[in-house]
Amino acid sequence: MKVKVLSRNPDDYVRETKYDIQRVPRNYDPSLHPFEVSREYTRALNATKLERVFAKPFLASLDGHRDGVNCMAKHSTSLSSLLSGSCDGELKIWNLTKRECVRTLQAHEGFVRGIVVRFCGTSFFTVGDDKTIKQWKMQCPGYGEEEEPLNTILGKTVFTGLDHHRTEGVFATCGQQVDIWDEQRSSPIRSFTWGVDSFSSVRFNPVETDLLASCASDRSIVLYDMREATPLKKVVMTMRSNTLSWNPMEAYHFTCANEDYNLYTYDMRNLEQPLLVHMDHVSAVLDIDFSPTGKEFVSASFDKTIRIFPKDGGHSREVYHTKRMQHVICVKWSADNKYILSGSDEMNIRLWKANASEKLGVVGHREKAATNYNQKLKEKFQHHPQIKRIARHRHLPKTVYHQSKEIRVMREARRRKEKNVRKHSKPGSVPVATEREKHVVTVVK
Amino acid sequence: MGKIMKKKVDKIKANKEEDIGVFTAVPEAVRYDDDVEEEDFDPQLSADEVEAEEEDDERKRNKLVQAISSMGKGRKSSRLEERSEAALIVSEFGVNSVGESGKVELSDLIPSATKKAQKQIETLKRGRRTLETPLSRQETERIHRDVAFQKVSEEVSKWKSVIKQNQRSEQLVFPLNQEPSGPKAIEHVVTGWKSQTPLEQEIFALLNANKQPIHNPVLTPAEEESIKAMSLVEAKIRRAELQKARAIQSYYESKTRRERKIKSKKYHKVHNKAKRKEFLKQFDEMVKTNPEAALEELKKLELGRMKERMSLKHQNSGKWAKSKVIMAKYDEDARKAMQQQLEINKELTQKVVTALNNDEEEEEEKEEEVLPDFANDAEQAGDSTNPWMRGKLTEEERENKEVSEMPVETVVIEEESEEEEVNEDEVLLKEFENKRQRRREAENKTDEQDEEQEDEDEEDGMAEEELSKFMSMIRGLSRKPEVEIIADNSTPLEEGLSRIQTMEDAENLQDAEMPESDVVEVVPQEEHTGIAPAKKAKKRKRNIELKQVLTKESKVVTVPLKVTTEEAEDEDLEEEIDQRGLIREAFAGDDVVSDFLKEKRNQENAGKPKSVNLTLPGWGEWGGLGLMPSRKKRKKFRVKAAPAAPRRDAKLPEVIMSEHRDKSIALHQVNSLPFPFDNHIQFESSIRCPMGRTWNSEKTVQKVTQPRVVTQLGAIIEPMGREEFKKVPQANQKAQTPTVTNQRNGQPERRHKHVQKRKKHK
């Protein structure tokens, strides 16, 4: 009698080394794995819950300044260093990994209004209320040497802002006018005025490097080309913009932080209308910085919160606040897209995670795959009410909460009134203005 | 000195102008009022600055002489001298106005000018307009700004393609300008290297002389040419075909081997029979269509017969046969085997008779064929009553007949196979080519077939592709069509005063009351779908009209009841009737159908939105006990409700579908169509396809779950640089940039033309 024995080829199941992964035969027959939608829904729900539970964005607070932090600058070549200037003219350089101050220097008398690191990372510039522009070495002075600037330029007026060209030895300041300086000269190579008395900030376009934009106190945003003798164009809005930031990945988009609690994203080729109005803040927005990927930006507000907006979203995806954080004056997004730094009135600099629930440090392959999968699940089921409710829930300080409610009521009332006016006037005489149209007064050529 | 030089140049100019004129009298020497600047010079000399110094001395001398000669003379008398003779040198100061009327007319100066020229001069005189004042500073600045802005916006628009591409891409890896990780290609490594030592240089010189490859060390020029000659795609196709062909061949080989191994004689019998049948059919056809080929076949058969007759193969003279002969006395099987062999021999040696080779024999056969073969055979067989036996016999008979053809076929096949072996690859390829051609033709003929074929081809990777396609579609939808308008798909955060710190908190949130907007009823959006109407039409056909069906008398199906007792056969009928009557009696009061209809109507009515009566008694009328508000008033204050959406069971008369919304389920349902989707079908299908590794292969999961933005740990992400231009395909850029420039340049020009036209009209 022939006995048939089950036999398998050992090549199919024996591992060569014990470090090899066990081969797991799978059967993808859908009938064997039913209820896929409901199972994935549950997974998505759990992932969302866990995301909220693990959302602990606050990492560290850097204290040491003796007055409110007025400005900050990222180091152009080192991720771990940060420069900050305070309202008493003190400048500190921080090591972010150790979370300690590396160097302190009295840069100016009065406020330090602006700091910018040269593209090579070996020196930095500061401007202050004492009408000076100073260039400093990045390196600490040797033992016994005094802290002295490499270069000091005495200007005629107070400088309120500063930015450096991305590749050339040229920088721009603003004050009563926008000046373009060559590093080698003590007088500006070009200065732009356009019937405005003062500017609050000036920023170089990081992509199309010869362009710049500035915010003026007459509620306008002015565009310049460094190569031209005249400014290019300006747009006047209903309220003043405090700062602006160019999108580092999209040459013609910039976003400005406005006094009217909103942020506006513009296409510089068409200033008639902002592309998008970002609203959520309940007080003036003081600073903005784009993430280096150009997908999101962070804004600091007088309402003591930081908010993260997607570049194409009208509402924030995240709001950060702590009990002790006062009016946030400056904010930066770190160059590796992982952290956010905020400097506030109460003399502290805070380090936050850009992605609140992200695990820091090295992530293993399987963990990474799992987080990716969870992320996609959250995206897939984001419209389902339960998941949406959990994913979008944020804790807010009482004041902000009530203020936002108030603002909502006000907005609703205004809308209602407008509607009534329209209803009781000649048809067509009160046109419907979209939110985007409302905030631009004129565009001056 | 500088002054003097300047003067000189001026004079030259003046002189030249005068040369054109018709002055004839020129003074020899010219004197100035001012003695210091007084001079006399030759234009030809003075033209050269090199000679200026020589002239200088001369001039000094002249000056001196003149100074002396002019001593004592009156200034006025020395100023002008009458011209008396023609000279080459003409000075503007030499014009003598003595005796003239005073004014010099332009026309006098150019008497030879044509009439036309004169006219022109006159018009010039007449049309003396003042120049326009220059634009104000503000105006000019504005123009400057405008031009500069146009230029800049054009420049910036070049980035459009890059930005769009980045928006579209499924995954962005930052920093952007990373070098690809992993080992580099040998060519890249080697090209960077240069010979330094003299020995190396010498070697390279030699290699160069011999046309040996230096920079691309892997391939010689000859090899490169050969690579160029052979296109990769063709080679791939060829290889794939060969592979397939080999696979098919090996499959057939293994199949035949397997078949050969089968020991069952019956199987082989049946198999051979089938083969023979097939061959016969083919042969018959061949006789009709291609008699020559058929003749050849016959010849082959003949040849086989001849061979058989010559050989002793199937005669009982072999070793095996002899052994069988010995055994035959005792063994039934051996006898059978011998018998079989002899039969084979017989069959093979039989002459093949067909329509082609012999007509006469055919006639004889015809006589035989009048009766079917098995009619006689069956009777010859032993048991005529057994139908099974009859059938079997006939079969055997046929088999015997067909055995004769069988070996012939094998011979043919053998011959062919020999040829095949020689160039089987080519034959296989040819076959495939034919197939491909046929397919191509088919493709041309009908698109539908094409689609089907594609479907078949893609069936393997279907599931995976479907998923990824869907994901990309969603992405595509969420992408903005134009940069001009950014659709805001973000919803406001739900900000509250509570924190989520544990899973319980999150669950509590879930249980918390949903906002009002979430409880809105979903109206199925059938208008959106293009498929819906067609479906409806079908449904209508399929639907059974309940009223028609239910109101008709139902047929009574009489089921033969199982007989319980044989004795009660006579009473059976009566009992049956009784039972029916019983049932009727039992359900006498029940009118199920009408009950059902009534219930349905009730449900419908309950679901209908009711009109609201807002009449208040007493307003504008007398009020009091027993007084009803007037009908007019009641009518006026009745707010009619909007008609409800059609019920889902409106067209299903036999069904009641509850419109009641299940709250526990509704909590988990999406109540409005989310942003990037056009219709609910799209959205539902996006939800339906799973992404996990329980349902998808590892690769698919990786592909589907890849994050949109990947950043490297600890790397500084620089802003976009000019290198990004290079990454975008050239064609894309070219297509976009000109359109921008045209738009910008085109408009102002047109405007200008317009303005000019208008002016002309005025």
TrEMBL record, chain A:
<keyword id="KW-0687">Ribonucleoprotein</keyword>
<keyword id="KW-0853">WD repeat</keyword>
<dbReference type="InterPro" id="IPR001680">
    <property type="entry name" value="WD40_rpt"/>
</dbReference>
<feature type="compositionally biased region" description="Basic residues">
    <location>
        <begin position="415"/>
        <end position="426"/>
    </location>
</feature>
<feature type="repeat" description="WD">
    <location>
        <begin position="278"/>
        <end position="309"/>
    </location>
</feature>
<keyword id="KW-0698">rRNA processing</keyword>
<dbReference type="InterPro" id="IPR051733">
    <property type="entry name" value="WD_repeat_DCAF13/WDSOF1"/>
</dbReference>
<feature type="region of interest" description="Disordered">
    <location>
        <begin position="415"/>
        <end position="437"/>
    </location>
</feature>
<keyword id="KW-0833">Ubl conjugation pathway</keyword>
<dbReference type="InterPro" id="IPR019775">
    <property type="entry name" value="WD40_repeat_CS"/>
</dbReference>
<feature type="domain" description="Sof1-like protein">
    <location>
        <begin position="354"/>
        <end position="440"/>
    </location>
</feature>
<comment type="pathway">
    <text>Protein modification; protein ubiquitination.</text>
</comment>
<dbReference type="InterPro" id="IPR015943">
    <property type="entry name" value="WD40/YVTN_repeat-like_dom_sf"/>
</dbReference>
<keyword id="KW-0677">Repeat</keyword>
<dbReference type="Pfam" id="PF04158">
    <property type="entry name" value="Sof1"/>
</dbReference>
<comment type="similarity">
    <text>Belongs to the WD repeat DCAF13/WDSOF1 family.</text>
</comment>
<keyword id="KW-0539">Nucleus</keyword>
<dbReference type="GO" id="GO:1990756">
    <property type="term" value="F:ubiquitin-like ligase-substrate adaptor activity"/>
</dbReference>
<dbReference type="Pfam" id="PF00400">
    <property type="entry name" value="WD40"/>
</dbReference>
<keyword id="KW-0690">Ribosome biogenesis</keyword>
<dbReference type="InterPro" id="IPR007287">
    <property type="entry name" value="Sof1"/>
</dbReference>
<dbReference type="GO" id="GO:0080008">
    <property type="term" value="C:Cul4-RING E3 ubiquitin ligase complex"/>
</dbReference>
UniProtKB/TrEMBL annotation, chain B:
<feature type="compositionally biased region" description="Basic and acidic residues">
    <location>
        <begin position="427"/>
        <end position="447"/>
    </location>
</feature>
<feature type="region of interest" description="Disordered">
    <location>
        <begin position="33"/>
        <end position="62"/>
    </location>
</feature>
<dbReference type="GO" id="GO:0006364">
    <property type="term" value="P:rRNA processing"/>
</dbReference>
<protein>
    <recommendedName>
        <fullName>U3 small nucleolar RNA-associated protein 14</fullName>
    </recommendedName>
</protein>
<dbReference type="GO" id="GO:0032040">
    <property type="term" value="C:small-subunit processome"/>
</dbReference>
<feature type="compositionally biased region" description="Basic and acidic residues">
    <location>
        <begin position="392"/>
        <end position="404"/>
    </location>
</feature>
<keyword id="KW-0597">Phosphoprotein</keyword>
<feature type="compositionally biased region" description="Acidic residues">
    <location>
        <begin position="34"/>
        <end position="57"/>
    </location>
</feature>
<keyword id="KW-0539">Nucleus</keyword>
<dbReference type="Pfam" id="PF04615">
    <property type="entry name" value="Utp14"/>
</dbReference>
<feature type="compositionally biased region" description="Acidic residues">
    <location>
        <begin position="412"/>
        <end position="426"/>
    </location>
</feature>
<dbReference type="InterPro" id="IPR006709">
    <property type="entry name" value="SSU_processome_Utp14"/>
</dbReference>
<feature type="region of interest" description="Disordered">
    <location>
        <begin position="357"/>
        <end position="465"/>
    </location>
</feature>
<feature type="region of interest" description="Disordered">
    <location>
        <begin position="721"/>
        <end position="762"/>
    </location>
</feature>
<feature type="compositionally biased region" description="Polar residues">
    <location>
        <begin position="730"/>
        <end position="746"/>
    </location>
</feature>
<feature type="compositionally biased region" description="Acidic residues">
    <location>
        <begin position="358"/>
        <end position="371"/>
    </location>
</feature>
<feature type="compositionally biased region" description="Basic residues">
    <location>
        <begin position="750"/>
        <end position="762"/>
    </location>
</feature>
<comment type="similarity">
    <text>Belongs to the UTP14 family.</text>
</comment>
<feature type="compositionally biased region" description="Acidic residues">
    <location>
        <begin position="448"/>
        <end position="465"/>
    </location>
</feature>
